[in-house]
Amino acid sequence: MRVLAVDPGLTRCGIGVVDAVRTGRRAAMVGVGVVRTPATDPVEARLLAISEGLETWLDTHRPDVVAVERVFAQANVRSVMGTAQAAGLVLVAAARRGLPVAMHTPSEVKAAVTGDGRAGKEQVTTMVTRILGLDSPPRPADAADALALALCHLWRGGASTRLEAAAHSALVTGRRNAYAEAEAAARRSRRNVVVRSQASSADSRR
Amino acid sequence: MRVLAVDPGLTRCGIGVVDAVRTGRRAAMVGVGVVRTPATDPVEARLLAISEGLETWLDTHRPDVVAVERVFAQANVRSVMGTAQAAGLVLVAAARRGLPVAMHTPSEVKAAVTGDGRAGKEQVTTMVTRILGLDSPPRPADAADALALALCHLWRGGASTRLEAAAHSALVTGRRNAYAEAEAAARRSRRNVVVRSQASSADSRR
Questions:
Q1: Catalytic-residue membership of B69
Q2: Which of A44, A77, A80 has the CB atom closest to B95's CB atom?
Q3: ipTM of model
Q4: What tens digit of pLDDT does each residue of B179-190 get?
Q5: What average pLDDT does range A86-93 have in this prediction?
Q6: Which of A9, A34, A73, B186 shows its CA 20 to 30 Å from the CA of B120?
Q7: Which chain A residues are within 8 Å of B48, Cβ to Cβ?
Q8: Where are the domains of chain B?
């Protein structure tokens, strides 16, 4: 099972490709990158560049599923529109290839890799680096976010989803009593996710 | 000069194609229609259907320029995201063909065809029907809006843009002293347009 995940954006579109290993509890990075477009270009040229970049990634890595970070409204309306448009291009590219599409919220992604739906960017990057056994943290944060989204997608799939992810996080950190801690963290994160999705308009940062 | 104009939307995407006749003061309708997608379909399937519908229209009518109604934020965030995504697909389709793209606000479109930036849907439909000499009003309103947008694009291009459009409207209505009235209407509409674009977040209806 190969997931291509996109953290959509007009200026930086993070893309991460991850393979499931052993029934989805472990994962291996296949590729990571960012499609950038200059803010000085007309919006149609930027969207075309993103569309072509996505096609190249899809052609190269031939994923089984495409995951997209769900876009929320936020203070900066102009920015959210560009993000929504970039996300739309991902959805169309996936649909054109007959690939299933999944969307996850930023809270779900953070909870999946750190056990906390309100984790900061650095924490997400740190956990992605550990979970995938990378030599150095993926930069910029959009690239790490895309990998976190791919992991989130691999680990979601039922009631035990966040528990599994949190357990894995705990395992990676090498703490003792890891599973019990993970279970508690997952319970907390489930509560957080519920609370945060009700307050979804304040949730996103892009 | 042929304009293909799109009033973007996820449920109904209005498309209108208009040719300029005699240096842009008169215009002839080439085609009008609506791409519809069912609200029960997944968003990626809807966006793909819109993308394919747009490609068919572009292949069939081979316009010189593509006009898109500018999307504003509004109360219904979920709806504006779908609209922004549909607009993004139009922008990419145009850019992929190397066609120039223009965006106009709803106020500019209304002012262009009625002389009043705050005109209602029925007034816009009535004027589009008159200006293009159609036997019956284009339905639904999204189709009429797309034609209005195409006319707006043909007529904009300098300080005299709205004046010309209003003069043409007055001509079509057959009133006496049409030009003087049009000039006054254009002056009013110019003021309206300025005021309305400052209040743009309350401006759009989709």
A1: yes
A2: A44
A3: 0.72
A4: 344 444 444 444
A5: 98
A6: A73
A7: 91-92, 95-96
A8: 2-202
